[in-house]
Design goal:
It is built from no helices and 14 strands. The protein is mainly beta. It has a single domain, classed as monomeric porin ompg (Porin), CATH 2.40.160.40. The strands form two sheets. It has a twelve-stranded antiparallel beta barrel with strand order 3-4-5-6-7-8-9-10-11-12-13-14. β4 (49-57) and β5 (61-68) form a beta hairpin. The radius of gyration is 18 Å and the shape is globular.
């Protein structure tokens, strides 16, 4: 599943910094594991096509990028520490009501197993971090008798949970929730579910659905995606 920012479940991350690379970096991980560092390329379709990729530099560092047909984009980098993975990214997106947002975020996924919690066949990850959002909100100006765009900015923190559940060697279920609270009474809540079918050891197809509602509008989508790991 793709990581959560204030508007995306697949972009969540953390502010904690500890020393030392993750000793588990060399261990085999599920393809949907948000702490996995690997070089990947993928394509996704919602109501438009988008292309995404990650380029790994060794076992603990990677850069990530995504761009869609309409010009929505996201770019950032990740570093794997002993406690989890730290992600830094920026991106642009549009909500369903016409609000355009550019965000800058730093955050992380922390496996609950790193805290010594026994989760059985479930793989659980907390997500938390900081997000700065610059929004262009369309409002009606009665003086001009026309719609105008008003810039609005806010800072927020987020907290979420992601779950992975392999049900066979080929199929993994996934789900996530995220809550956001920020300045000027800004708030948001979202969630998503999905399933990945592992076609080969390096190829996977994911069907997912997500919904997000924040103070400026909503965004929901059903997506099908394919990715290849090099």
């Amino acid at each position: 599943m793709t990581v959560l920012t204030s508007r995306r479940l697949a972009a969540c991350a953390c502010l904690v910094l500890l020393t030392g690379p993750l000793g588990a970096a060399a261990q085999e991980k599920l393809d949907d594991d948000p702490t996995k560092v690997a070089t990947k390329m993928g394509v996704k379709y919602t109501d438009e096509f988008s292309v995404s990729g990650s380029l790994a530099f060794g076992p603990v560092t990677k850069i990530n990028a995504q761009v869609s047909e309409s010009g929505h984009w996201q770019f950032g980098g990740s570093y794997l520490f002993s406690f989890g993975i730290v992600n830094v990214n920026a991106g642009r997106d549009d909500l369903d009501n016409g609000v355009s947002q550019v965000h800058y975020a730093i955050g992380s996924f922390l496996p609950l197993s790193a805290l010594g919690l026994q989760t059985g066949s479930w793989q659980l990850f907390t997500a938390f971090g900081y997000n700065y959002t610059d929004s262009d909100v369309p409002v009606y100006d009665y003086t001009l008798n026309d719609m105008i765009t008003m810039p609005v900015t806010n800072s927020s923190g987020y907290l979420g949970l992601m779950a992975l559940k392999p049900i066979s060697t080929k199929v993994t279920l996934q789900g996530g929730l995220i809550a956001i609270r920020g300045t000027d009474d800004y708030s948001g809540l979202g969630g998503g579910i999905g399933a990945t079918y592992q076609v080969t050891d390096r190829d996977g197809i994911t069907l997912s659905g997500s919904y997000f509602d924040n103070s400026y509008g909503t965004k929901d989508q059903v997506a099908i995606s394919y990715r290849h790991e090099f």
